[in-house]
Design brief:
Blueprint lengths: L15 E6 L2 E6 L5 H8 L5 H10 L6 E4 L5 H10 L4 E5 L2 H15 L4 E4 L1 E3 L6 E7 L17 E9 H8 L3 E4 L5 H4 L10 E5 L2 H4 L1 H13 L2 E3 L8 E6 L2
Length: 239
């Protein structure tokens, strides 16, 4: 098992904690952990549905765009199937970038393409957007007001359609803490055949969640693996 950094932590080399999930050795900065998140990482449940759905539905030759890559577990799962060169990992939280890259290199031998930016809707202007970083890296969001002790920073923003073109994506994995409502306001291009997504009705209501699913169904996406207890869906279009 790879060992954590031996040097004393500094702002450039923060203290990390190591976790083993599906044979992957994952480092996370201690400052980005909260008890519930640490528990899900320790018991292997973190992003478990997303990882299982990708294993079930990814095909060799797919190109994956992972939005909200975090510590990189979903990107690692995808890279093990389609190769790191076919995975683009997008993460807005600057505190996670170094660790995301190191986790990819450690577990699949290459970073693939790692982009420090936030995905926004095609109707949103490109440029920069405020990212609200809440306790625990899994809840960073471009939606404000979720926690009183959130810290904010400006990050580059790029419309989803441009990210899809850049990645030449056929598959999107999306966990963007409620921003999916804005990202999916414009229909997805026809080359996207699979969407693995966590929805967040607690942030925008069940009626909006149902509207998102109806809009995707109208684009030809069929539910092939919903995990409704955690609002995680695999939606596939055409075969």
């Amino acid at each position: 098992m790879p060992s954590p950094d031996k040097q004393p932590p500094t702002p450039d080399r923060p203290e990390i904690e190591m976790f083993t999930i599906d044979g992957a050795e994952i480092e996370v900065p201690v400052a980005a952990l909260v008890p519930r998140l640490r528990g899900r990482l320790r018991d292997g449940g973190y992003e478990g549905h997303e990882r299982a759905l990708l294993r079930d539905h990814l095909r060799p030759g797919d190109r994956v765009l992972d939005l909200g890559a975090g510590a990189g577990l979903v990107s690692i799962t995808a890279a093990r199937i389609v190769g790191a060169a076919n995975v683009t990992s997008v993460e807005a939280n600057p505190a996670m970038l170094r660790h995301l890259r190191r986790n990819l290199r450690r577990n699949v031998g290459a970073e693939g393409s790692v982009l420090h930016m936030a995905a926004v809707g095609d109707d949103d202007p490109p440029g920069t957007i405020e990212l609200h970083v809440h306790p625990g890296f899994w809840s960073a969001s471009i939606l404000p007001g979720r926690a009183k002790n959130a810290q904010s920073c400006s990050v580059r923003a790029k419309p989803l359609s441009r990210l899809i073109r850049r990645a030449q994506a056929t598959v999107i994995a999306m966990d963007v803490e409620g921003a999916e409502q804005r990202l999916l306001a414009t229909p997805l291009p026809p080359q996207i055949r699979l969407l693995v997504i966590e929805l967040h009705p607690g942030l925008y209501g069940e009626s909006t969640r149902d509207g998102i699913l109806r809009d995707l169904a109208a684009q030809g996406f069929a539910d092939v693996g919903a995990k409704r207890t955690e609002e995680v869906f695999a939606l596939r279009r055409g075969d």
